[in-house]
Amino acid sequence: MDFKEGYGWNLPVAFYFQVSFEGSPGIGKVAFKEVSGLRTELEVETVTEGGNNGIELKLPKPARHGTVVLKRAVIPFMHTFGKWVRATLEGGLEKPVVPYILNISLMNKKNEPLYTWECTGCYPVKWECESLVSDKNEVAIESVELACTAIKRTD
């Protein structure tokens, strides 16, 4: 059964996505091998009702957003993205941290966004190079972890 005919939509594929940064100075689109950490969760506080020990109330607390992890091949820091990561992590907070809006779009076969996750107030909090192993023939991969103020999905 074709999902489009039966339900009005196609199942998206996870390998066709686009990553772009909005802000100044402009970073624009950057290619990545993998994106993870797109999550929002509502924490709850458990409170025992006074005078009735058999009841626990679950009260909502502010939403927490995941740190977005971007993975790609290790490349020089010449690109604006690399310069931003380096300046933030190695700058010693001598200059203000410059946040960006990160848009991660899942694309359809016509190269149009199906879903976009808008991550606001993003800045790098961690850079890591995966293990370098002498007996493997693999591309060296680096990851950059970004803290975000909010993550929202739009259709």
Describe the structure.
With 155 residues, the chain is mainly beta. The protein has two helices and ten strands. The strands form two sheets. Strands 1, 2, 3, 6, 7, 8, 9 and 10 form an eight-stranded antiparallel β-sheet that branches. Strands 4-5 form a two-stranded antiparallel sheet. The longest helix is centred in the middle third of the chain and has 11 residues, at 80-90. The chain starts with a helix and ends with a strand.
Average pLDDT level: 88
Number of strands: 10
Helix coverage percent: 10-25%
| Rg from Cα | 20 Å
Descriptive keywords:
155 residues, mainly beta, eight-stranded antiparallel β-sheet, two-stranded antiparallel sheet, 10 strands, 10% helix, globular
Quick summary:
This protein has 155 residues and is mainly β.
Layout of secondary structure:
Layout: H1 3-7, E1 17-22, E2 28-29, E3 34-36, E4 40-48, E5 56-65, E6 68-73, H2 80-90, E7 100-107, E8 113-129, E9 141-147, E10 150-154
Antiparallel strand pairs: 1-2, 1-7, 3-6, 4-5, 6-9, 7-8, 8-9, 8-10
